[in-house]
Amino acid sequence: MSSEPAATNDTNITASETLASIVDAYGRMDMELPRYLLLIVLPSAVFFVGTVAVAVVVDLPLSVRLPIPLLGGLVLLSAVAYPKLLVSQERVEMENQYHLMMTHMTVLSTTNIDRMEVFRKLAEEEEYGALATEINRVVELVDTWNQSLDDACRRRARQIPSDPLADFFERLAYTVNAGQGLSEFLLSEQQVMIQNYVTMYESTLDNLEVMKDLYLSMVLSMTFALVFAIVLPILTGTDPTMTVGAVIVLYAFIQIGFFLIIRTMAPYDPTWYYPDELRPEGEWSMIASLAVGGVLSMVLVGLVAGDLFRIGPGLTDVLPVSSLPRPIYMAVPVTPLAIPGLVFRAQEERIKARDDEFPSFIRALGASETAKQSTTTAVLKTLRKKDFGPLTGDVDDLFKRLNMRLEPDRAWEYFTANTRSYLIQKFSEMYLVGRQMGGEPKQLGELISDNMNQVNQLRQQRQQATVTMIGLLYGITAASSFAFFIGFKIVDILAGMSLDLTTTSSFSAAQLIHTEVYDLPLIQFMLLGVVMINALLSALIIRTVDGGHKANALLHFVMLVWIGCLVAVLTMSVVGGLLDV
User: Which of 86, 136, 303, 570 is the most buried (most CB within 10 A)?
Assistant: First the structure.
């Protein structure tokens, strides 16, 4: 008996905490609360009431009327929850850049500059986003309002939505007030920072695993719903185009929702670096692959249109076949898009290989500079002869540019641009700035190497999660296409059987089987559209989980389209052979 009140109290506490967090989120908005309610929430509520009225008044099938108020409810819920989502997005953005900012701060603190200058330089780093904004607020409190650094950190700690960053500011305020040096404190914080980042990264991957299971159950449910929408009208006589179309819209809506959720949850850990001015090696080959893939795809679209609509030379005029199954006509035009997908994938694998070698290179560079008490150019003269895998050529080019008396900043810019690695660019910039400001090379190299090794280990875990997601989405694509076209082929066969019964028997099959309501070519086209939508969104989900270049989605898109279309052809062929009489 006593457990029930305890459970009720826990529920009340959770509800009150949630309400308090929502109220706090509204208070953090740049827009005033009355104005937000008037301009955003009120119109959303009116739209929701309007969708409910449309669903009640308009005479439409239930499967069409039901999604209408759901859309209105989603708009209203989004308007109400947007401030909370905005705060959550800011928190995620901070935590994604937390480890880079901490490493950068530690590198700057080991140089010969004032501690406030460390904060000012970090505030200028626009790439850190919300973190740079928060650091800038600390700088403003010190420079404009004449507060001490510890008071400013303590004040901002109460306003930061990220718990790890708030804890860091609290510890920093206490340490500064106690008189400890900034560099000493930050070096001791490295292990705590790394552990916090690992915990956040791994928890995000665990959340993606949960979303994967939920996605599987929802997509399979919608698959069964679509099969029923195809088959049931043959018994009820309702318009199958309306029911199938409504389920397809709901199916796409659910997949888009899951894609957006996964995109929000996925850890921010970019692989590619995009230089503003320089053209890295291999840039033109990637651009050419995009152009070739796009042009060939457009040519194949024209040939397919020639076959289907008889408006010119067709695909069968080029291939040694008289005809092709209709699903294959969907798959052929997208096939050339695999060309840029393969080119970008190969380039990305080289970037990842360079990332694996960079920690050993930067550690060796820092240790050698300290041991020899020499310049970077003199040390690279020896290091360029060592094997750093795919990074060896880039190290050699860096030495040549420095040896030609090119400015160090420019030489390192070329180095990072040609590696195309986001992490190499960030850590190389930290090392260069640390050296120019008097930091100890060995300490800088070890600090950067340890941090990048940890990120590389986390990326291996992410790669395993990506492989699991790829297997799941490819399997769902095959299973869904199999289910769709089994239902379609059964209806197609029943339509043929009913036609035969009406010509050979005095009993009309139309009394039991309503085949006249079907437009089978249109239904088949709609199902192939579902295959394309599923392939597109699944490819985007894979790319989001993987964290690679957007062009990587093209290869998965092509493969998923071919899987769906081939399964459709085989399913209709096998079912037709077994049931057609």
Answer: 303
